[in-house]
Amino acid sequence: MSIDTVIPSRPRSAANRIRSAELQREEHRRSDRAALHEYASTIGLAALVRRAGTPLFVLDPARVAGEFERFTELLPFVRLRYALAALPHPAVIRTVASCGGGFDAVSTGELAMLAHEQIPASDAVFSHPIKRADDIATAAAAGVRLFVADNPAEVRKFAGVHPELRLLLRLRRVADAAHFGIDSEHALNLARFATSLGVGVAGFSVHVDASEPDAPAALSTMVHEALRLIDEGNARWGLGLDTIDLGGGMPTDHEGGEAGADAMTAVVRSILAPRVPGLSVLAVLGRCIAAPAMLLATSVVGQATRDGEVWHYLDDGMHGSFAGLRGSGEVPTMFSLSEVERAGSDAREPLYPCTLVGASTDGIDVIARGIPLPPLGVNDVLLCPDMGAYSLVMASNFEAVHRTRVHVLRPSRAQGKRTVNV
Predict the structure, then answer these.
(1) Number of Cβ atoms within 10 Å of the Cβ of 326
(2) pTM for the full model?
(3) pLDDT tens digit string along 188-237?
(4) How many CB atoms lie within 10 A of CB 26?
(5) CATH number for the 28-58+291-421 domain, one of 2.60.120.330, 3.40.50.720, 3.30.360.10, 2.40.37.10?
(6) Cα–Cα nearest to 418, from 35, 47, 101
(7) How many other C-beta atoms lie within 10 A of the C-beta of residue 24?
(8) 6 vs 1, 3, 11, CA distance in Å?
(9) CATH architecture of 63-289
(10) Rounded distance, CA 394 to CA 252, Å?
């Protein structure tokens, strides 16, 4: 055999691949723990939790502002609005408004939340594709001028409501199993039907979730299709279409992956930036703003060993702050408060698989199985970052357990750091 012959290397064994994946997860966990250690030190989290008790949400408006400003930089030509459904806390609403953001509402109740904060309804898009006629009238009377629809029966409800009212027609993806949207082959007929009723049509709305397979490519396809419809509708029938709404679906920072925020927004910039200012571009930010806004602190209230694994029973659960995870298969990121406090040292924490169970007697109240955590005792505190999205809003009072309290951080003039406003 020649010394120049290349001998192909053997593929790694399955055990090696598994071990490599485990090492990557461990390194990722150490990195996240170090970041949480720095953040917790900045806001005095340990003292706050010991003073206020658990379960406790810590809401940081500075994080809301930071994420909103990040997306403003990524999409400078896009009119961004916040999805109230994700976390309609007054502190979040006020912060988004102070950043110049608009709002995405799907009910008159959400519009009432804006009114309570003295934010005009004209700053909102009513994006639920199916609405009661009296809700349309109420929203229009309050000042909403842009609504979403996707079928003729819905469009008829807008006839004669308000002369300045305009519609965004939501498009359906071919491979989409969602409840909403019209096939693109019928979209221009629906637009023409609306104009025949005297109802203005602004353009089209799309929605691609970053968690979907090949999300950037799917978003590119949908945006190109919406632009094609806009150009055809204007050229053939003079419909005056001038708006594309990207909907929601932008990922949180911790979701990352190929469909991270950078990848998704790069698609938007490459396709739509050349069309501005002749085209108005809208987008919804929901989970990506709400998730990092709140951290959850929850305590171990009981322990047992079952089938050789330790079970930790917490004072919060799937009927409470973890309700947003039901059916998702998602495992929350968790750290013990003590390990976060020690994260500044070089010591490596031993981790053991355990099961986390919620506060109720319901059999479905299992938060996670086999989650690696350091040794815990009763009254030890667990910290769960990125818990703001669809947690507080989906929690219930099952078994008469109160919803988790929310403490809002505020700037401290004296120390230059954020402290809790109790």
Answers:
(1) 14
(2) 0.90
(3) 999 999 999 999 999 999 999 888 888 999 999 999 999 999 999 999 99
(4) 14
(5) 2.40.37.10
(6) 47
(7) 10
(8) 10, 8, 15
(9) Alpha-Beta Barrel (3.20)
(10) 19
